[in-house]
Amino acid sequence: MRTAMEMKILFQLALRNLFRNKRRTLLTMTLVILAVAFLLTADTYMNGMINNVTEDAVKTSGHIRIQNKKFTAAERMLPIQHNISGYDRIRTAVQHKLPDGAGVTGQIRFPSMLYGPEKNTVGLGFAIEPAAAEEILQLSHNIIEGRALGGGKDDGHGAMNGSGNGAGRNEVVLGKELAQRLQVKVGETVSAFAKSQYGSFSGVNLIVVGISDLGFSKFNKIFYLPLSTAQNLLEMDNQVTSILIMLKDQKEIAPAVAALRRDKAVAGYDVIPYTDNVLLQQLLPIVRAVVSILLSFFLIIGILGITNTMSMAVMERIHEIAVMGALGLKRRKVIALILLESGMIGVIGSLIGLILGLAMSWYLVNHGIVLNDTARGLPISVKSVVYGQLNPVAVVRSFLIGSIAAVVSAFFPARRAARIEPAAAMRM
Fold first, then answer.
1. Which residue pairs from 279-285 have beta carbons closer than 8 angstroms and sit at least 24 positions apart in sequence?
2. Do 312 and 20 touch, CB atoms closer than 8 A?
């Protein structure tokens, strides 16, 4: 009972002291608010950046990709002669090894020259089965003009769609930047010329059925066409450069990779999860380091600010503390009183900081930060608009850091105050 009464008195004293010097309390609390708010906002932005790059990797390679080992070794050169033969047979075998709902498709990536009515440019061909283009790339979500591959309807320009591998074989969806460079619109024709796997050059006329904007500068320089069209162009009958696999749940990736690597149908080929992407392996440690540096920076600023203001508050109340000591208040109670004051500031400041941080995070999640030309100059594929991704763990972590940092930073001023003898303090 006595302990409870003492704690109640200490709480009342601490609460009263918060309002004795409102300016200093507000200053201390502002430091906590800003530290918590910016810490949460930085975490949201960095998570969004990681999600951005991860999305790029998945859209390029699915959750898992199967490739010829020689193609993997020289992938930047896109050596289409090092491909996967007998695609139909291997695809059937792979499908049987995967959980229900998994998507499997062949892919061919190849460099090409594109010619419009007046302009020409270099583009990267991305050939895929039309149905899979929707299932894996979700290409229709990014169409800004026209339609995606294999829509099944007349597009208004005389080009008919169908479905499956042979649907709309002479159609193409251009990335936004390619369409701008070629100065073509939906319904017009472009010609694609490429080197086959045997070294001969051939071309094909393609009707532009859609223009896409995937947000990435890299993807907006790609043109998408049906797999069968590219196979004919490149003399790759029943051959692909990669087999892409998209799973319903990322938790299924590791078991699926293990099962495929044991499968005789893909023996001798690389089975690569998207997490093995070299860029991701290089980027994630950097992002974690940046987050740690930001955390340390805001934490140090907050602790120094609170330590300074609490030291000043203690010096101003040195006579009051001496009187309380003379009246029998023990040193540990003095420390508890000052820590309680700082804890109140920390909790209240952290709560307000969370509200501010959540508001800024909401803006990042829903509106993002527009990078535009800045994104083009980065060494990684980054969308022109980067959206944040709020992590609930970061919300709790930011609150705890703000609250605990406030208490820890007040410990040394509190201990110094508790060590001052009442008689010496009265003479100050």
1. 279/53, 279/57, 279/380, 280/53, 280/54, 280/57, 283/50, 283/53, 283/380, 284/50
2. no
The β-bridge relationship of strands 171-175 and 201-212 is parallel
Question: DSSP code of 221?
Answer: G
The H or E element that residue 173 is part of is strand 171-175
**Mind listing the pLDDT tens digit for each residue in 185-230?**
999 999 999 999 999 999 999 999 999 987 667 778 899 999 999 9
Radius of gyration for the chain, computed over Cα atoms and rounded to the nearest angstrom? 31
Q: Which of 118, 196, 128 is nearest to 167 (CA)?
A: 128
Residue in this structure with the two tokens 């600023």, named with its chain if needed: 301
Cα–Cα dist 404/424, whole Å: 32
**β-bridge mates for residue 122, sequence order:** 113
- Strand runs labelled E in 216-321: 222-226, 239-240, 242-246, 269-273
CA distance 392 to 411: 29
DSSP summary character for residue 147? -
Q: What angle do CA 421, 427, 428 make, to 5 degrees?
A: 90
Query: What's the CA gap between 417 and 335, in Å, rounded?
Result: 8
Distance CA 79, CA 70 (A): 8
Residue 62's DSSP bridge partners are: 245
Residue 100 tokens, joined: 């229900």
Taking CA 40 as the corner, what is the angle to CA 399 and CA 336, rounded to the nearest 5 degrees? 25
Q: Record the tokens describing residue 211, joined without a space.
A: 């223009």
- The predicted model scores a pTM of 0.67
Q: Summarize pLDDT for 344-402 with one digit per residue, the tens.
A: 888 899 999 999 999 999 999 998 877 655 444 444 455 557 788 898 998 998 899 88
Tokens of 338: 């000052």
**What DSSP character marks residue 380?**
S
- Burial of 117 (C-beta count, 10 Å sphere; 0-12/13-18/19+): exposed
Of the candidates 66, 110, 59, 97, the residue with the CA atom closest to the CA atom of residue 242: 66
